[in-house]
């Protein structure tokens, strides 16, 4: 049932708006701090992240602490009505520490320690570094735990999966393996298929995670690194949890990368936060970029059971990432900021508040430019967003109620990268495939949760599983029960091929009993070059009423129906006339198998038909113009409808009933025009189901 989640902090019931604030870079010119307070008010900023890389300013020499500058900043923030998201500084260890204690620096595979410098390159297993982190974190919690500005702990920053091959990390990895394989070395050798190339491990001490020919070994190394990161995070938070139990704890995820299992990490934080840097305007297709960004927003919302997340970092203008650095065109900042709110964020925060004068990110986009005043386009657009968010207190904590789930699983992605790349090569395109199966729902206004294979499927009616090459233990049984009990599942080719150790399943694909669910046997998968296409033609009279012929690219599988009904067939190649799309009744549900990689021209009508047959709720009943989307947030009494146009030309959206403009209070009926990069936020009383 729809409900309202509590705000991130009981101290702030507004949508958070602000940025990553680095006053420690400006201690020589404290007058800049007062300028910042004035500009924050003008920009409508009510929250800033402070101290993320400030360790050398907090502890310039070992045991010598300087908190005066941070005292002054937090007092100024409180006096100006700005909340503080206070960071712990472990992401950037001070130079004195790196030189005094080389054991805290990561070790490369060749046995050499990394040189001091950079960031996020500490050894996660180092007892000394953990001790140092707890010491500084305890001092921060003791000093600021009751400060009126403090609303949230921002622990470290953008954890990564960097390799460290020091004795401590290797010992911890081998302990992890002993636990995973119940101290049974034969079981591990079987899981790794180590007889291949005579790579049998005679003892635990001989296991080193550098042999990429053993896919199971490298998959376990990725699992271990996620576990170590989470363990390190928990160690960092010990003093925070002890001294400030009422202050929630988070860190900023980078779930657009496959470096960690962020779904597993989400269990350790109180609220999920992430850093979003879409490449707007890079390819000329902002609609595709918008859909991919929406998927990541939905993923963050899904990680905590639908609880609103925090957009911890975005950029008002230009990032330092990407091949070409292009500023956002007018209107895109407002549109992309509202997009995050529409998909479940209770914040729009930026990196960075003020551009620094030196270093790698001195030209990275910011609210305040080097000019130091408010007379820039970026500042005006940020202030516009601030004024907009200030009128949306009613949105805080509202929920989204998807009946559709897309499974994008990090362990599956690692396995595809390690184990399937030797066959599929550049044609894996896992994230692109996930987005292709997400975008039809986004374009139709149907809400989606983005989950992994460990999630519960019971609350959904439709689950789609793009390129589910690896099946985690117990997942096939869960999917089988979901369909048998009335659910609808969609699976693509090259799915159900290997187990958790990346060992090929025997008896035919999809394995682990899924052949019976989908009613097909996949005989072989063919790879195609970029210039090749295969025609897929819909069968006359198919139950989904699909028509036409569509191009398939990259990978196509030869499948044999074993109870499934053929909905479309291949038109050419040596497998012409064989099934390309099938549907199968299993128990009380249906299971569809897409044996080829098909594009939006097929997937959009395919998923629209499934949504119609299942009577899945849409944000608005009408079909949306291409390039637009509609998202709904509700508390069960008031619905907030977000209409967004990612086209460079206006679009007209028909409304099903009268609405109230959430910003102006005017009544809106009939057809509504969304300008280029336009967005409208409407509301209505009563649940969406009325």
General description of the model:
With 690 residues, this protein is of the alpha/beta class. The chain folds into three domains: 16-163 and 231-395, TIM Barrel, CATH 3.20.20.80; 404-613, Rossmann fold (3-Layer(aba) Sandwich), CATH 3.40.50.880; 628-685, Immunoglobulin-like. Helices cover 30% and strands 20% of the residues. The strands form five sheets. Strands 10, 11, 12, 13, 14, 15, 16, 17, 18, 19 and 20 form an eleven-stranded mixed β-sheet that branches. A six-stranded parallel β-sheet has the order 5-4-3-2-1-9. A five-stranded antiparallel β-sheet has the order 21-22-27-24-25. Helix 8 (215-243) runs antiparallel to helix 13 (410-424), helix 10 crosses helix 14 and helix 14 packs across helix 17. The two termini are 14 Å apart. The mean pLDDT is 96.
């Amino acid at each position: 049932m729809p409900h309202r989640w509590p705000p991130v902090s009981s101290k702030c019931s507004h949508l958070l708006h602000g940025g990553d604030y680095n006053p420690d870079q400006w201690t020589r010119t404290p007058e800049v701090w007062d300028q910042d307070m004035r500009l924050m008010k003008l920009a409508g900023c009510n929250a800033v992240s402070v101290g993320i890389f400030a360790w050398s300013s907090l502890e310039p020499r070992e045991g010598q602490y300087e908190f005066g500058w941070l005292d002054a900043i937090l007092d100024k923030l409180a006096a100006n009505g700005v909340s503080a998201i206070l960071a712990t500084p472990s992401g950037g260890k001070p130079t004195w520490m790196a030189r005094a204690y080389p054991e805290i620096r990561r070790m490369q595979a060749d046995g050499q320690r990394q040189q001091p410098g950079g960031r996020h390159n500490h050894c996660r297993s180092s007892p000394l570094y953990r001790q140092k982190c707890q010491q500084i974190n305890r001092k921060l919690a003791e000093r600021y735990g009751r400060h009126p500005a403090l609303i949230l702990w921002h622990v470290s920053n953008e954890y990564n999966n960097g390799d460290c091959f020091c004795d401590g990390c290797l010992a911890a990895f081998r302990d992890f393996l002993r636990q995973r394989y119940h101290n049974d070395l034969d079981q591990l050798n079987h899981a790794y298929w180590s007889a291949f190339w005579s790579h049998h491990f005679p003892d635990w001490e001989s296991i080193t995670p550098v042999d990429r020919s053993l896919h199971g070994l490298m998959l376990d190394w990725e699992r271990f690194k996620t576990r170590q990161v989470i363990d390190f995070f928990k160690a960092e938070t010990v003093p925070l949890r002890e001294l400030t139990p009422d202050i929630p704890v988070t860190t900023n995820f980078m779930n657009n990368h496959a470096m960690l299992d962020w779904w597993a990490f989400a269990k350790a934080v109180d609220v999920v936060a992430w850093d979003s840097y879409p490449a707007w305007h890079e390819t000329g297709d902002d609609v595709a970029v918008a859909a991919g960004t929406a998927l990541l927003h939905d993923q963050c919302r899904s990680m905590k059971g639908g609880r609103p997340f925090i957009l911890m970092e975005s950029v008002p203008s230009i990032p330092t990432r990407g091949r070409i650095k292009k500023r956002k065109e007018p209107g895109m900042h407002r549109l992309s900021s509202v997009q995050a709110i529409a998909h479940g964020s209770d914040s729009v925060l930026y990196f960075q508040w003020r551009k620094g004068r030196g270093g790698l990110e001195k030209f990275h986009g910011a609210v305040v430019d080097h000019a130091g005043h408010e007379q820039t386009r970026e500042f005006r657009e940020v202030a516009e967003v601030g004024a907009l968010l200030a009128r949306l207190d009613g949105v805080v904590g509202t929920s989204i109620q998807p009946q559709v789930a897309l499974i994008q699983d990090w362990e599956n992605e690692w396995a595809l990268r390690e184990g399937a790349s030797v066959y599929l090569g550049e044609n894996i395109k896992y994230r692109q495939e996930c987005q292709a199966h997400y975008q039809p729902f986004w374009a139709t206004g149907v809400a989606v949760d983005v989950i992994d294979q460990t999630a519960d499927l019971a609350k959904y009616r439709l689950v789609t599983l793009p390129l589910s090459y690896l099946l985690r233990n117990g997942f096939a049984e869960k999917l089988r029960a979901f369909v048998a009990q009335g659910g609808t599942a969609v699976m693509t080719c090259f799915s159900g091929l290997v187990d958790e150790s990346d060992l090929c399943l025997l008896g035919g694909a999809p394995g682990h009993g899924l052949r019976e669910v989908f009613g097909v046997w996949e005989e072989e998968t063919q790879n195609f070059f970029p210039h090749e296409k295969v025609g897929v033609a819909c069968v006359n009279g198919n139950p989904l009423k699909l028509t036409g012929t569509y191009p398939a690219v990259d990978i196509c599988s030869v499948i044999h129906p074993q109870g499934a009904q053929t909905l479309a067939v291949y038109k050419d190649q040596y497998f012409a006339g064989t099934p390309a799309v099938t549907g199968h009744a299993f128990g009380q549900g249906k299971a569809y198998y897409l044996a080829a990689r098909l594009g939006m021209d097929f997937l959009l009508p395919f998923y629209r038909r499934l949504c119609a047959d299942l009577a899945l709720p849409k944000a608005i009943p009408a079909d949306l113009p291409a390039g637009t989307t509609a998202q709904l947030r509700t508390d069960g009494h008031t619905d907030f409808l977000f209409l967004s146009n990612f086209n460079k030309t206006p679009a007209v959206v028909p409304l099903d009933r009268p609405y109230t403009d959430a910003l102006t209070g005017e009544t809106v009926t009939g057809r509504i025009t969304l300008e280029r990069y336009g967005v409208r936020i409407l509301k209505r009383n009563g649940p969406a189901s009325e």
